[in-house]
Structures are given as C-alpha cells and as structure tokens.
Amino acid sequence: MKILIANRGEIAVRIVRACREMGIPTVAVYSDCDRTARHVREADQAIHIGPNEAARSYLNSAAMVDAARRADASAVHPGYGFLAENAAFAAACRDAGLTFIGPSPDAIALMGSKTAARGAAARAGVPVVPGTQEPFARDASDAEIARTAAEIGYPLVVKAVAGGGGKGMRVVTGPGELRSSIALARSEAGTAFGDSAVYLERRLAHPRHIEIQLLADRFGTVVPFVERECSIQRRHQKVVEESPSVIVDAPRRARIAEAAAAVARAVGYTNAGTIEFLLDEDGSFYFLEMNTRLQVEHPVTEMVTGVDLVQWQIRIARGERLDLDPLRALTPRGHAIECRIYAEDPDQGFLPSPGLIRAVRPASGPGIRDDGGVTAGYTVPVYYDSMIAKLVAWADSRDEAIARMSRALSEYQVLGIRTTIPFFVWLMQQPDYRAARYDTTWLDGILTSRRGRSFNDLGPDDELLVALAAAVDTYQRASADAGRVDGLARSGHWQRTARAEALRA
Amino acid sequence: MTFEVEVAGARRTVSIEPAGHGRYRIVVDGTPHEVRAERIGEFGLSLITNDGAVDSREVNVAPGSARGELLVELSGRTVPVMVDGRRRRRAADGGAHGEGEQLVVAPMPGRVVRVLVAPGDAVELRQGLIVVEAMKMENELGAPKPGRVKDVAVTPGTLVEAGRVLVVIE
C-alpha cells in the first residue's frame, strides 16, 4: 500500500505521521505556493498538482487521480475539506483502481446533501431540527422563500445543502434579512463547494453542539465514540472542541451514541464519520448533519480513548475488521481540549493574517499535543483556510486540562504573523468558559460585548518589558549593521533602522 | 542611543547604553532600568530585570508582514511595536486623504467578490460597501463614517493586496 494524501497543511502532516508509524509510504501533493510547505517535506514523495487557486489544484479531482497514478499510489486519503466529501472524487478514485480511504461514494453523496441526510436520520428514528425537506430551486421566487421562512418561523438559519465548516451559512433574525442572507450563503457555497443550493432550518435558542465520532467496517460493525462538545464557535466555525462534554452523563451518552450508530447503520456507512447533534436546553437532541470524513477535531477523541482514528481509517479501508472494544471507545479517560490556531488577527475582527512565518516554537510538555502544519520560513498563503496548527491539552479533569492549555498557549511562539493564540489565552480565563456555561451563540455574544477591545492587553509591567526588549533589539541590530555585533542577519528592516540611526548620529 | 518606542498606543522615550557583559542601562521616560539581555537565536531575547515581580522573561522581536512593523511576542500575546514612528500608519486607522475624505482599504489580500455601492451613493456608518473574499471567507467591509461615495477603485474579480484603496468616502 502507498497512500497519496489529497490535502495540505496540518492534516496532511497528521496523515503522514499515521502512515509512517504503520510503515506505509506517502505521497504529498502541492500547489505552486506550497512547494516548501511542511507536508511536502515530510512525505516520502511529492507531486506538483497545479497553480495556487484551490479549484485548479487541491480541488482538481482529475489532477489528483493522475498524481496518484504517476506516483504509483494504491490508495488516497482525502483528509478534510477540499475533496474529502466529494462523491465524484471518491468514485473517480474507485474507477481508477485506487482505494479511497473513506466511505463509499453513495454514502458521501447521500449524507453530503444536508436535506437528504435529514431525511435519512428521520427514517432511522432520530429527531431532526425542523426545517425545509428539500432545497430551494435556483429560480425560487423571493415570495416563495419568504412564505416558507414564515412557516418555519424566525430566527432561522440559511444553510448550504453541500455546506460544512460554517461556510455557506447565515442566521436570519427577521424577514428583512432573508434576501441578502440567501444571496450571501448561495455565493459562498458556490465558491466553496461548487453547489449553491440552500435550505432553511429553525434556529434553536440556546443549543449546544454535541457530536459523535464513529468508525464502521465493511462487515457491519459500527463503533460510536464518546461525544465531543464543539459549542465554542465564532460565526458557526468551531474554534475550541473538547471531550467529554460536561453536560453529557453516561446514560445520555449511551442514547446519543446509539442514535448516531443507528443513522450510520441505516445508510450502510463505512470508515470514519461524525454525526452532529444540537442539544436543546430541555435536554432533547436533534440530528444536525453527518460529516463523512475525518474531522478537524478528531485529536480530542484520540486523547481520551487512546485510539488512533487515522490508522483505523487505513485499516478499515484495506479490509480489516473493526475489533475495537466498544466500551473503551465510549468511556473517556480524562479530559481533552483542542484550540484551533489560525493565522488571523483577533485584534482586527479575526481578519486573515497571511505572511512569512519567521519562527515557530510549538508548546510541549506533559499532556500536550501539537498537530502543526507550518514551520519557520513558510509563507502562509491567502488561497486556503488559515488554520496553521491545532493545540490539544489532555489532563485528568477539565479544570486541569484548562490550566494545561493556558500554560501551553503561553509557551507557543509563532513569529512574523498574527495568530489566534492571544484570543485563546483570554478565552481560557473567562469564568463562563471555565464553568462550561455556554451554548453555540455564547462566543459571538461575548465578542460583540467586548467592542473590539484588544486581546493583547499587557498591563504596565509587561508594557515596560516590551519597551525594554524593543530597545535592546533595536540597539543590537544597529550595532550589528555597524559591524560591532556578529551573527545577526541584516534584513531590510534592520538595515533601514541602522541607516536611520547613522543619519541621526 | 535614544528613540521613541510606541507600545499599545503609548509613546515612550527610551535611551539605551551598554554596560558590558550583556548588561544594559535603559532609561524609559526618565526612569532608569538595569537589564541583562542575551540574544536567543535570530529573534529571541532573554531579559533579566531586577525591578519587577517576575524578573526573568523571554521576549521575541520579529518583523511583521506590514512594512516597518515589529511584532513582539510575550507569553502567548503579540503586540505591534513602532520604533521612531517607522510602523506605517494604516489607512484603515483613519488615514486622512484630502478634506473630509476617508479611504476604505483592503485589510488583507484577497479578491473582490461584490461591490455594493456606486460613486455618488449616500452611505450610513458601517453600511456594507464591498465584499472581499480571503481564505474562503467573504468579509464585508463597511463605511467608516457616514457620507457619500466619491470613488470606487475596484471591480468584482479584482485581486487586491493589503492596503489597496477600494472605496473613497467623502
């Protein structure tokens, strides 16, 4: 077996790690700007797949299959995002004689349509969030959409039928916003998924996001795992995930896990997948959607169960039996939290902050796992998702995991660009977060109430320290350029500083 | 050597002179500090000061992506620092451009997907002007002040660099 990894960044690195441990050779793919990316350097082989635009590289199914053929790969791991939930790609792999490490094209197609998935869940006896049964036609009139919206009731959510990762999704609080929200969701979904169909769903007032990871083999065995909670979301994008959830006790866990397994069995699901639920304030839960792939947040499940999900994906794909102890999968040991570190500036409304990474020093030490995708010298490109690493903390209890995460965040250094690390430092200190008093709207609410205040407030002592450091640095750079200190690079910035100094002197 | 250092919007006058063996005498706004400083690699500094509660700290000073900008990293936080005013002022911070005009600039590199206004349109504070897609998310840029659109400098599909002027409001 040789695996082509049809992805980039941290997830490609994660898959290389699993393969290396299993003794399986790997093939990376890269676009123009990713020539020096970490995943290219860590894989055994690398193949250029196309130009920077994702549509012509990482989303180019034909180029991907061709790359697998050229590298003589026998299997393809799609990671998440890009082609991971593209049924046509899974079918193209199969037709080219490649093992697709994921579910069947039929299962992807069925669950990839959110409306069809809702139908499948309902038929398996699992409750779904009230909403439209079918997507709107492209030429559906405003009046028709408004009528349907009024029947469901506001607030509601416009969702892309092909959506995922919070893209192509808009909350509508009243009829006035309906038209522009649908236009935005359609446009974003068209760009991100190549399918602009949308539907409507009622918005629960204060739901928590609970999801069940599962594995399923080709012999009908389905093993659901202990839940993850992903209620910490910014604009419907998960930013922190944990396992287990503090609001799920063992009996409720058994019920939700069984519901998830029932949906998977009903659609003949194989390989790794995740069923997402919304948990309402009254304790009832609703099927939200199924992700027919590995999730970004899979490490928290791995940390509390000790199961390597990526290795199991590969084993299931090559026909092995899933002989995992179901009790072990459902019984968490300790508590794990994941923070998604993005190249974004939290002090400017989380705007993307691409650019050259001057240095990276990930956190380490007891209970810490860094699933990183970048290294020093790499320029974070503007073309793809801005996540550069996932930091995971594990400890015996949730309180200890939070303390450990805080410690790790203070160690994590990414120089040259802005990241969301300062935001997580702040988040870990919030009383509501620490007490697990939140729902999926909590973070957006608290961010709005902060009115853009900086996440990098230092206090007088640290401000002084920064001034002292800037002074020493400027002095040493100027001295280096004057030939008085050896060993410092004379980059453009430092040269300008030195010239300015020379002019003043 | 004396310069102005701006940290978190506060300007300080800082002078520094070496005192030998990795020691520096640094005067910040008239207050002297004795600092032991050693360079750790290209960007790191180990500082030992004797006048704070915590006296040993690691600080990293590296150039940011904007021209002339320094980003200082300290225990999980990152602050932009300007030495002698060399961090270019961002137009988005309210850069003046003629009498009563305000420029709306691209805060990040991306692609213009929609232009929501035309020259001559009256706009309200924070009214959406333009939608820029970057990293697969659409970001709607709003009017920084109420006024009238004087100029729209881009069309849908235009690839823009950070700092590129998109719309002029008067």
Please describe what this structure looks like:
The complex is a heterodimer of chains A (505) and B (170). Chain A is built from 18 helices and 23 strands. Chain A is an alpha+beta fold. In chain A, strands 9, 10, 11, 12, 13, 14, 15, 20 and 22 form a 9-stranded antiparallel beta sheet that branches. Chain A has a 5-stranded parallel beta sheet with strand order 3-2-1-4-5. A 3-stranded antiparallel beta sheet of chain A has the order 7-6-8. Chain B is an all-beta fold and 170 residues long. Chain B has 2 domains: 2-83, Glycoprotein, Type 4 Pilin, CATH 3.30.700.30; 91-169, OB fold (Dihydrolipoamide Acetyltransferase, E2P) (Beta Barrel), CATH 2.40.50. Helices cover 0% and strands 57% of the residues of chain B. In chain B, a hairpin with a 3-residue loop joins strand 4 and strand 5 (44-49).
- Give me the count of strands of chain A: 23
Major sheet attributes of chain B: 8 strands, antiparallel, barrel
Number of helices of chain A: 18
Q: Tell me roughly what share of residues is in helical segments of chain A.
A: 25-40%
- Main sheet specs of chain A: 9 strands, antiparallel
Q: In total, how many domains does the architecture of chain B comprise?
A: 2
Number of helices of chain B: 0
Which segments of chain B are poorly predicted (pLDDT under 50) over 5 or more consecutive residues?
87-99
Give the termini distance of chain A in whole angstroms.
Answer: 67 Å
Indicate the radius of gyration of chain B in whole angstroms.
Answer: 21 Å
The CATH first-level class of the largest domain in chain A comes to: Alpha Beta
**Model regions low in confidence, pLDDT < 50 over at least 5 residues of chain A:** 501-505
Overall pLDDT of chain B: 83
Number of strands of chain B: 16
* Count of structural domains of chain A: 5
Structural class of chain B: mainly beta
Task: Tell me the CATH architecture of the largest domain in chain A.
Answer: 2-Layer Sandwich
Reported by name, the CATH topology of the largest domain in chain B is: Glycoprotein, Type 4 Pilin
CATH class of the largest domain in chain B: Alpha Beta
Chain-averaged pLDDT of chain A: 93
Strand content of chain A: 15-25%
